[in-house]
Amino acid sequence: MRLSVGDLDDLSLGGVFLATGGGGDPYVSYLLAQQALAASDGVDLISADTLDDDAFVATIGGVGAPSVSLELLPSIGDPLKALRAFEAHVGRSVDALVAFEVGGGNSLVPLIAAAQSGLPVIDGDGMGRALPEAQMMTFPIAGISPTPALAIDYEGNAAMFDSGSAQTYERHIRAVTQAMGGMIIAVEHPMTGEALKSAVVRGTLSFSIDIGRILRERRGLAPQLLPALGAAFEQSQYGALVELYTGKVVDYASAIVGGYDVGKATLAPFDGDGASLTIDIRNEYLVARIGDHILASVPDLITVLDYETGTPINAERLRFGQRVTVVGVGCPDYYRTARALEVVAPRCFGFDFDYVPIEQRV
Amino acid sequence: MRLSVGDLDDLSLGGVFLATGGGGDPYVSYLLAQQALAASDGVDLISADTLDDDAFVATIGGVGAPSVSLELLPSIGDPLKALRAFEAHVGRSVDALVAFEVGGGNSLVPLIAAAQSGLPVIDGDGMGRALPEAQMMTFPIAGISPTPALAIDYEGNAAMFDSGSAQTYERHIRAVTQAMGGMIIAVEHPMTGEALKSAVVRGTLSFSIDIGRILRERRGLAPQLLPALGAAFEQSQYGALVELYTGKVVDYASAIVGGYDVGKATLAPFDGDGASLTIDIRNEYLVARIGDHILASVPDLITVLDYETGTPINAERLRFGQRVTVVGVGCPDYYRTARALEVVAPRCFGFDFDYVPIEQRV
Predict the structure, then answer these.
(1) Radius of gyration of chain B (CA)
(2) B161 contacts in A (CB within 8 Å)?
(3) Distance, CA of B9 to CA of B285 (rounded, Å)
């Protein structure tokens, strides 16, 4: 599939849906991708399975607190600059790029570098959603080291890492990200095509376009929207979509703690009567609950949609008074394995309960 | 001059004196240097001026809060591991090593790597004393970039930097140092022999040995010690030594703030009667004052000596009740130039007064 400017609307809209509150605001990345794609012949979105086993692939994306990306804006040359610096550092040319995660911003960053370099982008990513920490990606879970990795900031300063574990790498790059202003572009997880195939969550960019198209075509048509989304998810690797709550944002607090957006949102019914829903946030929406009753938790997806338009809303865009519908979707099976749950279960985020798949909770 | 185990006592003792409270505790570094030198044929301590102009030199030392080095102990293989990783990163072999700064620990780190690699060590350093931040070294003041630079932690994790300025580099490596546990070994300032000669503070390691010998030979002989030290400094690039205060430590507070030891010590007369002296600390002793009257300030040297033995005491070793004599010494002329004062004057540390050379203050 050849991606062009016309695909960006749906890709970024669907990316925000799958990014479950995180993944970066798409606005500026969208403008940059639009400009980069318009100046190119388009970007090849290729299946991981068409890659040579000995191809050399790397992930690329933004790292930081999503709220920072609203103010510290990326430049159109940053992704390619990061890619070239990474290639010089490892002494090898990259054959294809892959997204860290699906996200409004982070689905688009690889496209910007790809449009400028002529490289293809893998239809897939390392999370199938967005998650806040490097060790939560499918690649390190499968044993692929995130390093050698390289980060550049808005000034072109670079930091490179060789780390013994993904957790260590996460700690180090997060510290540098904070020192670099809170948001950087990183190139990570150099790997072979063979390694990529063992761990990539397949088809998530084209699926984002599908979801984005549904969101666009049924914008403002609430009665049709959720059934249409539900049908699309049902046939995908994610599974059933569940409506969790509808109400208005009555409380929202967020702070940058340790380089992440950490916060909580509270929703109440429109008429103010009835139980309220709380959502815990660490870049992404992690847990949705009513009182002690948990409706959905990480690694399953929790997404907040504007009640009127159905547009998904990132955590850093939540505001008092917004009228929203909260939905949950199962995560790809990969994240339900014991090995993956060691790094993405609710306890990894400090919550005192075990993961129960959303279809068993509802 | 060939350094051997027998020189280490004086070298580290004199290094603590010149390090003006910082530079790292020498105890473990001393044991490591002793072992490394004993297993070698010694280390050549060479004059910068004997170096070829096109030789390739790098600085090496510990970065972090000195208080951390009391608990997060270096391993004997760390300096060489950092050197080799740096050489692999820049693709070039280092011809000679030079210390960041004179310090109990940081004078010895280059010797450990040199004993194990056979490289010579320059008789000199990048500060002529110790100072807390990278941009305060003579090398960046002379326009030599601290990067490419490499840091390794106790586990062997590495971070590398390419930074647009020394201030930026300082911010980034300090953040990584904190994430790496608070103390790392860094290799920085790759430069030619010609560049080194333009900026190195000459002769500071051999001068440390001279000062260390005086301290050792006159240990406990207070009436002879200060005159002997004074005579040695008078003939050196530092100038006159001034006795500032004698008393006991009645208050000492220190916290790790932003990766530095930040604190304050208060001294009172032995009989409790009379004016007290306060010393401001940021890794190093920065300002000594009685009330509003400033006796000495950075970049001049302020050193605290045990009252009984004359042994210099690092800031992280200050304790309530210690009986001490505080002395001040002028800094090398290099630090009194307008260009150097732009980065090392008291205002660079947040103090609201200008630098006045110690000989004009007393």
Answers:
(1) 19
(2) 157-160
(3) 23
Question: Which residue in A155, A156, A179 is closest to B175 by CB distance?
Answer: A179
Q: Give the other-Cβ count within 10 Å of B154's Cβ.
A: 15
Give the gap in angstroms from C-alpha B149 to the nearest C-alpha of chain A. Answer: 10
d(CA A149, CA A34): 27
> Contact B160/B125 with Cβ under 8 angstroms?
no
Facing residues of B215 across strands? none
In a mutational test of the B interface, the residue from A86, A162, A165, A169 whose CB has the highest number of chain B CBs within 10 Å is: A162
Contact A155 B176 (CB under 8 A): no
Q: Which of A157, A172, A178 sits opposite B157 (nearest CB)?
A: A172
Selected residues 44-103 of chain A with any CB under 8 Å from a CB in chain B = 85, 89
Residue A252's nearest CA partner among A285, A291, A290, A275 is: A285
Contacts with B31 (C-beta within 8 Å, 6 or more apart), sequence order: none
**DSSP 8-state symbol, A312:** B
Per-residue DSSP letter, A332 = P
Give how far Cα A327 sits from Cα of A124, A285, A288, Å: 23, 11, 10
Q: By the 8 A CB rule, do B28 and B104 touch? A: no
Domains of chain B, first to last: 2-202 (3.40.1610.10), 221-361 (2.40.390.10)
B157 and A178 within 8 Å at the Cβ level: the answer is no
Contact (CB, 8 A) for B176 and B163: no
Residues A17 and A208: their CA atoms lie apart, in Å, by 8
- Global pTM value: 0.90
Do A1 and A50 form a contact (C-beta atoms < 8 A)?
no
Residues from chain B that touch A158, judged by Cβ atoms under 8 A, are: 161-163
Cα–Cα–Cα angle for A22, A28, A34, rounded to 5 degrees: 115
Q: pLDDT tier at B214 (50, 70, 90 boundaries)?
A: very high
Contact A66, A314 (CB under 8 A): yes
**Beta-carbon separation of B175 and A171 below 8 A:** no
Q: How many CB atoms lie under 10 A from the CB of residue B47? A: 15
Q: How close does chain A come to B279, measured CA to CA in Å?
A: 29
Contact A168 B158 (CB under 8 A): no
Predicted confidence at residue A24, as pLDDT, reads 86
Q: 């989304």: which residue's tokens?
A: A229
Chain A nearest-CA residue for B178: A175
Inform me whether the C-beta atom of residue B189 falls under 8 Å from chain A C-beta atoms: no
What's the rounded Cα separation, in Å, for the pair B174 and B260?
Answer: 9
Predicted local distance difference test score (pLDDT) of residue A220: 85
Q: What is the pLDDT of residues A74-101, one digit of tens each?
A: 899 999 999 999 999 999 999 999 999 9
A159: closest chain B residue by CA: B161
Looking up tokens 């932003």 gives B258
Distance in angstroms (rounded) separating the CA atoms of residues A38 and A250: 41
Are B157 and A155 an interchain contact pair (Cβ–Cβ within 8 Å)? no
Q: Could you give phi then psi for residue B91, rounded to 5 degrees?
A: 70, 30
The residue to which tokens 């003579």 are assigned? B138
Mean pLDDT by groups of 10 residues along chain A of 362 residues: 95 96 91 97 97 98 90 94 98 97 94 98 97 95 97 97 97 96 96 98 98 95 91 96 96 91 96 93 96 96 96 95 97 94 96 96 85
- Which among B63, B162, B168, B169 is the top mutation candidate for probing chain A, defined by the most A β-carbons within 10 Å of its own β-carbon? B162
Q: Concatenated DSSP letters for A116-165?
A: HH---EEEEESSSS--SSGGGSHHHHTT----SEEEE-TT--EEEEE-SS
| Cβ–Cβ contact B157 with A under 8 A | yes
Contact at CB, B157 and A175, closer than 8 angstroms:
no
ipTM: 0.87
CB pairs under 8 A between A and B: 64
